[in-house]
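Q: Could you fold this chain for me?
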Amino acid sequence: MINQGTPVMARTTGAYRWLKWVTPNQLTFGRILAVPVLLGLIYWRSPWSNYVALALFFLACLTDYWDGNLARARDEVSQMGKMLDPIADKMLISASLIMLVALGIAGPVPTILILMREFAVSGLRQVAALEGVAIAAVRGAKWKTIFQMLATGALLLNHDPLGLPLVAFGQALLWFATLWTLVTGYSYFADYFRHGRVQGPG
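A: Sure. Below is the predicted structure, expressed as structure tokens.
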């Protein structure tokens, strides 16, 4: 049992003891390397490949949670990790959605809107970087990623197991995620132009 006086850093590190042989950046690279395998499973389009794709996608999504917490627990936060983490998320979700669009499962319009928002915010970050300013995540940005992941996960089981309308649910959730994505994207630009720059950690 952990005493209440145990430092938070020590408790957090202990919780990730099973990841002691892995660095946060390796988890991020693992998420990136999972993308081509995931695309192959999606393209195969069979019940068993759908289940495996969902399992791989879920594991990759968990690494998004693990790598950040692990980096902070070990005090291994790096500029490379800050750069690669959001890129890995975008690669995982965007590539999956594009493949699902190609198969006629995901809607092309919400997917395009999501990609447009991601490109726009990335461009804004580059402009801010040239000004020597790091743009902090706006409120709700993490939920944007979670909603996108949930929608993509539901669409991966596109054979509707047990008669559950997961495709319809995933498509509706994708539109909701798109709306949330656009709102948070607007917040970045509104804050930037309102204050001239957005201060805070990236």
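A (continued): Residues 166-195 form the longest helix (30 residues).
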